[in-house]
Design brief:
It is built from eight helices and seven strands. The protein has 231 residues and is an alpha+beta fold. The strands form two sheets. Strands 6-5-4-3-7 form a five-stranded antiparallel sheet. The protein has a two-stranded antiparallel sheet with strand order 1-2. Helix 1 crosses helix 3, helix 2 crosses helix 3 and helix 4 packs antiparallel against helix 5. The longest helix is centred in the middle third of the chain and has 17 residues.
Length: 231
């Protein structure tokens, strides 16, 4: 069965997302199973819909970050996954991230046809109430911000006996468990990767100082040291 144009455009966008450097139209065409002329035409269409695609014929194309999805179709399972995920984030993350998750669903809902929009507004998948997780007010948002900017944090951290130590950490990830949130970081005091429960962080301060290694590389190292598959 011939691929629909909408599906072909979506596949082209997803394929472009896999490349950080310009990729030739002939490579895109071969992967998608279409002609090079079709690739040129579809790229022009995507540009018209707002996709920031740089490049030209004979040079290659690259999709710059920040492109918003055009009004493409989602399956019912995909819609339920989005709604369920946003509701979980609203319950388990900090306030700003929860509001962001709700905004994402609202933006997607705005471009869906009526028959699919009903699946967003009337989803039967709910997140049940859980035990409240104690944490320093605003700590998670501060940690997320530092992770995004690759900045050091000065924290006072209490152990299971309540004894606090002053540390400088390089946060690289936050893990969400049922009852706790854990910061994965390089600890200058211990000279190694350590895990810090956010509910035991007594104080946190952004030092506005970039740590010397790239977070992506450190995260790969941490996965290797822990023997945990990358997500």
């Amino acid at each position: 069965m011939p691929m629909s144009r909408t599906q072909r455009l979506l596949d082209l966008i997803q394929l472009l997302r896999q490349y950080r450097r310009p990729v030739a139209a002939v490579t895109l065409a071969a992967t998608l199973g279409v002609s090079v002329r079709t690739v040129y035409r579809d790229i022009d269409t995507l540009k018209g819909q707002g996709a920031d695609i740089a490049g030209e014929a004979g040079v290659g194309y690259v999709l710059r970050p920040g492109f918003l999805l055009p009004p493409l179709m989602f399956t019912e399972d995909e819609i339920e996954a989005l709604v369920l995920g946003s509701r979980w984030v609203a319950e388990q993350a900090d306030g700003p991230l929860g509001k962001a998750a709700q905004a994402v669903v609202a933006k997607i809902s705005a471009v869906l046809p009526p028959e699919l929009k009903a699946g967003v507004e009337g989803s039967g998948l709910l997140i049940g109430p859980g035990e409240p997780m104690a944490a320093l007010d605003g700590a998670l948002a501060t940690i997320r911000h530092a992770i995004r900017r690759e900045r050091k944090l000065a924290v006072a951290y209490a152990d299971e006996r309540g004894e606090a130590t002053e540390r400088v950490i390089w946060p690289i990830a936050v893990a969400f468990f049922d009852r706790v949130r854990v910061v994965v970081a390089w600890c200058e005091l211990r000279d190694g990767y350590r895990h810090f429960r956010i509910d035991r962080i007594v104080s946190v301060e952004d030092r506005d100082e970039r740590y010397p290694r790239r977070r992506g590389r450190m995260l790969k190292d941490w996965h290797a040291v822990q023997g945990i598959p990358e997500q």
